[in-house]
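Lecture 7 notes: from sequence to structure.

We start with a single chain of 141 residues. Read the sequence below before looking at the structure.
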Amino acid sequence: MTGIFTGPAIAGMYRWVDDQGNVVYSQQPPPDDRDTKVIAPPPPPAENTGNSLDRTRELNRKLDAMARERQKAREKQRQAKAERTAMEKRCASARQDLKTLNERPPNTLYNMPDGEWKRLTPEERATRIEMLNKAIKENCR
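Now the structure, written as tokens:
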């Protein structure tokens, strides 16, 4: 017959002071009627190891989900910062271009994006000023 050997359950520990003044801890009571303190064993685990493993896995899944959410939040902040920076650049550029248009005489030659130099007609100049004011309103906050 096979079986699992289980020793006697520990009811607790005993603590007493011997004749030489040494503190003694033992699973057996003292041999005489000395003052003895019984120390109770620790409480059993609250749950079995299977539940503990499942709980640990669940906590790990939650931690992973939280880490993914933090990463998404950091990416969103990075994108928002990049957009703010781009808006600030568009704002500064529009303000500078508007200042240039307003300070220079109407017959000034302007270097166009294609590299060509051109004088703006009054209509082109008014359209450009209107476009720059709109860009300033949208980007300068």
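The radius of gyration is 42 Å. Keep this in mind for problem set 3.
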